[in-house]
Amino acid sequence: MPNRLQNKVAIITGAGQGIGAAISRRLTREGAKIVLVDINADCLESLAHELGTESLAIAADISRKDQVLSMVKQAKDAFGSIDILVNNAGIIRDGFLSRLSEDDWDKVMDVNLKGPFLCCQAVFDIMKAQNSGKIVNIVSRSWLGNIGQANYSASKGGLVSLTRTLALELARFQINVNAVAPGLIETPMTKNMPEEALARLLRMQPTGKMGSVDDIAAAVAFLSSGDGDFINGQILHVDGGKSCGLLSL
After folding, report:
1. Where are any strands of DSSP class E within the chain?
2. pLDDT at 114
3. 152 catalytically annotated
4. Residue ranges per domain, the chain?
5. Which of 122, 152, 158, 228 is labelled catalytic?
6. From the CB of residue 13, how many other CB atoms can be counted at a distance below 10 Å?
7. pLDDT at 143
8. Which strands make up the sheet holding 133-138, listed edge to edge?
9. In 129-243, beta strands by DSSP E
10. Contact at 8 Å (CB) between 112 and 13?
């Protein structure tokens, strides 16, 4: 494993499990110091222990500005810089329009869109002073639209637009802002899906199979490294080709 991220400091939100944990492990293997952020403190401690002394676990609600500012300060105080921000935390509260409550809309927007905005805003001054930084937002191919996910798709579409806007605003400070859009990925959530629903999704998948959390982690590591220095404002779909078009059910 190349040490493309040697001595870089990376904040990863939603780091406690699934894609976030895989990203944390991959960036650690590439030499980064990791700040693990999750609203669930219990799932962070074991991962921090696994990753070793060059990691820091912080329980925080990224939809709360005071907690985001405190998290960023703790990270900076512990490691001296913040070189990479991975906005991975997200929630799903699915439902058709007629059944989608205002609370379901607000909660998804708060975590999936407001949270990344607050995190980007909080690290900006640090990255600007360094004249360098990498921000990677985890979106979803659902930003293209998905039945029963008006809130989730809108939040991820908003995050795509935020990615492109910040890429333009922050480029002069040598801060790259990109996004990774996972498709159907094997996670605890997909493992618990009803067999019929999962089979339906797989029939729509050009590869006929799910991707792994490591596929997403590899894409994030690439965009976070010097190999991605001239890539800015891009949405990298890691979805086995599903974003090219919808297959027949």
Report:
1. 9-13, 33-38, 55-59, 84-87, 133-138, 175-182, 235-238
2. 98
3. yes
4. 9-236
5. 152
6. 28
7. 81
8. 55-59, 33-38, 9-13, 84-87, 133-138, 175-182, 235-238
9. 133-138, 175-182, 235-238
10. no
Q: E-assigned strands of 70-169?
A: 84-87, 133-138
Quick one: how far is CA 64 from the chain centroid?
A: 17
Would you tell me how many other CB atoms lie within 10 Å of the CB of residue 118? 22
Instruction: Output the pTM of the full model.
Output: 0.93
Q: Are strands 33-38 and 133-138 parallel, antiparallel or unpaired?
A: unpaired
pLDDT tier for residue 142 given thresholds of 50, 70 and 90: confident
pLDDT tens across 82-107, in order? Answer: 999 999 999 888 888 888 899 999 99
Pull the structure tokens for residue 176. Answer: 């790259």
For residues 175-186, give the mean pLDDT. 95
Q: How long is the chain?
A: 249
d(CA 141, CA 211) in angstroms, rounded, equals 13
Quick one: pLDDT at residue 203?
85
C-alpha atoms less than 13 angstroms from C-alpha of 220 in its C-beta half-sphere: 33
pLDDT exceeding 90 applies to what percent of the chain? 72
Q: Is the pLDDT of residue 190 over 80?
A: no
> Shortest CA distance to 58 belongs to which of 46, 47, 69, 74?
74
224 vs 91 pLDDT, higher one: 224
Specify the fold of 9-236.
Answer: Rossmann fold (3.40.50)
Count CB-CB contacts under 10 A for residue 73: 12
DSSP letter assigned to residue 101:
-
What span, in angstroms and rounded, lies between the C-alpha atoms of 221 and 31?
11
